[in-house]
Amino acid sequence: xxxxxxxxxxxxxxxxxxxxxxxxxxxxxxxxxxxxxxxxxxxxxxxxxxxxxxxxxxxxxxxxxxxxxxxxxxxxxxxxxxxxxxxxxxxxxxxxxxxxxxxxxxxxxxxxxxxxxxxxxxxxxxxxxxxxxxx
Length: 135
What we know:
With 135 residues, this protein is mainly α. It has one domain (5-105). It has helices at residues 5-36, 40-67, 71-105.
């Protein structure tokens, strides 16, 4: 039985952290599924919910940290941190691939900026200097 208020507070903070961590794990799974399904709306909702769950978990971690976090919760926190990093990397890779595909399909150089092969008179355009020094 708990003998003092500080002990009771410590148990309460650890229990709150447990609940917050469970919510983070749930939202990580939801985000993973939304990414797997290629569902932008669900991804946005899951990312927002995960952000809120992480905010709550960090707040509860601060309270529970004063009394100490049990090793089992520390392992779950480490696993959740790794999953967040893995999903962040997966999103970054997907974004990079999408950017490259868009660059291939929609080049950023305009026709005016691209060097012309032929001039208005049909003759090849050459640079003003050839790079040779003449005396």
